[in-house]
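[SOLVED] Predicted holo structure with acetyl coenzyme *A

Edit: marking solved, answer below. Original request kept for reference. I posted the sequence and ligand SMILES and asked for the 3D complex as structure tokens.
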Amino acid sequence: MSALTIHKGLAGVVVDRTAVSMVNPDTNSLTYRGYPVQDLAANCTFEEVAYLLWHGELPTPAQLAEQNAAERAHRALPHDLVLTLLALPESAHPMDTLRTAVSILGANDPDEDDNSPEANQAKALRLFAALPSVVALTQRRRRGLLPLAPREDLGYAENFLYLSLGSIPEPEIVRAFETSLVLYAEHSFNASTFTSRVVTSTLSDLYSAVTAAIGALKGPLHGGANEAVMATFEEIGDPSSAEAWLKTALAEKRKIMGFGHRVYKNGDSRVPTMRRALQTVAELRDGHRLLDLYESLARAMYAEKGLHPNLDYPAGPAYHLMGFDTPVFTPIFVASRITGWTAHISEQLAANSLIRPSSVYSGPAQRALSR
Ligand SMILES: CC(=O)SCCNC(=O)CCNC(=O)[C@H](O)C(C)(C)COP(=O)(O)OP(=O)(O)OC[C@H]1O[C@@H](n2cnc3c(N)ncnc32)[C@H](O)[C@@H]1OP(=O)(O)O
Ligand SMILES: O=C([O-])CC(=O)C(=O)O
């Protein structure tokens, strides 16, 4: 590689190795630690997938029981944190609340700067346990409701839904939600994961890396797209308007959220699994009109630009039909991706090198200061 070759957006640049996951656009596959993600989604709980991402192997029953006990014991948020989060303006985006919560948890952790594998694994588990309570707090606050106490008798996905929506939905909805958590958990060197690795590479702490990653995920070119998809559906209104709406939007050079991908050019490996989950939710929640909109826009986008949906495209409407408010969609993504981020933070620390790329200078030539 010539020193003067610029790779805008680092497209195609290989910066390191990873053993956490493999995205293969040629075979349209995604594996976590070697296991196809669609097989994990069909056969495993999210807690098992978290264990796999962190430790490299699926847990034995005893290992899972131990992790579950620790996770359930850390679901409740410290009272002071709840008060601080409720003191934020009601207009704050739930992603901002989440970012603030992680930052406060870090400031309160006496082991914040302990970067040993054991300390960081304990922090990862505590964040994994606490994030659904923060997401649920933001969801309930939007509806004028106070937070609920977490339930230790429920699995991760069930407790998450109970805390957010106030009741446990049908098992098919719980399964669809859990599928989304498994699919969102990890995706190699995406922008937010890379952000977490950049922060970690300076030997900063895990909370700082996660806080920065939340900021990176918020943008609509990354995780924020799952919220933007709902705005698009609302703008289109009727499925019969999708084609005309798209032609106008493309003529105006707008980016259509939920379509395209930096790595996948022939479709996102996770979309078929999430599309089936969306179908299940739509059948239970009278979502046929939203499904028609989904299909009409996807057909038109392929015809106009040859672009396929990414995971955010089916996840957005699925969360909507489950009963979440749109601004809570990307925070749900955070609660899942915390597993992938923290696996990458550990991997970065285990073989660290400061991440500091180069640039080509394009400002004024050196000049004399005349004073
Ligand atoms: C979980 C995730 O984070 S998945 C990604 C979620 N993000 C989105 O859905 C946002 C919408 N999509 C996009 O903006 C892009 O597809 C990205 C950012 C995801 C990937 O971008 P890149 O790899 O840089 O692709 P790039 O922007 O070069 O696209 C290639 C061409 O397709 C066009 N294109 C790509 N995606 C879209 C889109 N969603 N809408 C309209 N045009 C698009 C680009 O304008 C470009 O056209 P051009 O060659 O005429 O200039
Ligand atoms: O890989 C990417 O660039 C974005 C993505 O799909 C993800 O983070 O899940």
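OP edit: The pocket of acetyl coenzyme *A (ligand 1) is lined by residues 9, 221-223, 225, 255-262, 305, 307, 310-312 (CB under 6 Å). Thanks to everyone who chimed in.
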